[in-house]
Amino acid sequence: MTDAAKMKAVALKEYLPIDREDSLFDAELDTPSPKGRDLLVRVKAVSVNPVDVKVRAPKARAEEQPRVLGWDAAGIVEAVGEEATLFQPGDEVYYAGSITRSGSNAEFQLVDERIVGRKPGSLDWAEAAALPLTTLTAWEALHDRLRLSKKPADNEGKSILIIGAAGVVGSIATQLANLAGLTVIGTASRKESADWAKEHGAHHIINHYEDFAEQIGKLGSEAPEYILCLNSTDKHWDNMAKALAPQGIICSIVETDEAFDLNKLKNKSGTFVWELMFTRAMFETKDMIAQHELLNDAAKLVDEGKLVTTLTERLSPFNAANMREAHRRLESGRMIGKLVVEGFGA
């Protein structure tokens, strides 16, 4: 491990609008040391997700010490804790980390090895950093929450409606649903986003501002057995409940601002379930290592050419100015694909 006691990082102390220069600032912090099952990773690239913007958003509180955000990274294992067995120094890894720990917007980060995967060998650092959070979310939503079989033969004739198919999670979910043999119906409202969703495997596109059931009926498709909501559960709830097939399942990753009526699923014996990819790390569940295995499986799919990264933009070097720009672009709501910040430097 490096003898340097300090590391570069991008941090915050107050939760401010992104146009404020002090909303995210360059910092010099102590380099941490790994213990237990932790890895110390030298971060090579970090991708920015909606969770970064949400956590950084203005709020009436301040941190006593600089807080480092960031929940998507690729890098090299620098050192390991005394109980770590899955990796050794020099290994190339990718991961999404934990919402309850210091993040990846730093030269070095501690992360539990049970939520870390081996970086796909066919990708560079930025391409790999674009994948973990969205892949974990999409994979868990489909296979853990919707209980979707990975065997195409089990899913013959079945369909899934993905609300927000052109988003960063939707782009991965569409690919994984295709691999599982489902017909994918995606929602989009702009030509650019519809084209992106089709490029990633959506068989049909409908407009998420119009009645889902009517549009699906016009396609000649049966009601979907599965619905994955990646955009405004509140806004789409009635539309989803109406479109769902009897005994179907709805999974959402978007929290609600208002109570919604689960009675709308009663006659259909429908199921509603949440997905949050931070759950396993946050509660250190008994199956926490499933994320290590999942990321390794995803890396294999990538290296076999069956799953593609959704990286579309890069910013370099890694500093507060570029991270603020990344947040600005994400907040615009117009981005397609993932933005990655890479290369520590001036």
Automatic annotation (TrEMBL):
What domain of life?
Bacteria
What InterPro entries does the entry give? Answer: ADH-like_N (IPR013154), ADH_Zn_typ-1 (IPR014182), ER (IPR020843), GroES-like_sf (IPR011032), NAD(P)-bd_dom_sf (IPR036291), Zinc-ADH_QOR/CCCR (IPR051603)
The Enoyl reductase (ER) domain is annotated at 19-341
Q: What SUPFAM superfamilies has UniProt attached to this entry?
A: GroES-like, NAD(P)-binding Rossmann-fold domains
List the Pfam families: ADH_N, ADH_zinc_N_2
Q: Recite the UniProt keywords alphabetically.
A: Metal-binding, NADP, Oxidoreductase, Zinc
Q: Which family does it belong to?
A: Belongs to the zinc-containing alcohol dehydrogenase family. Quinone oxidoreductase subfamily.
> What is this protein's name?
Zinc-type alcohol dehydrogenase-like protein
Q: From which organism does this entry originate?
A: Saccharibacillus endophyticus
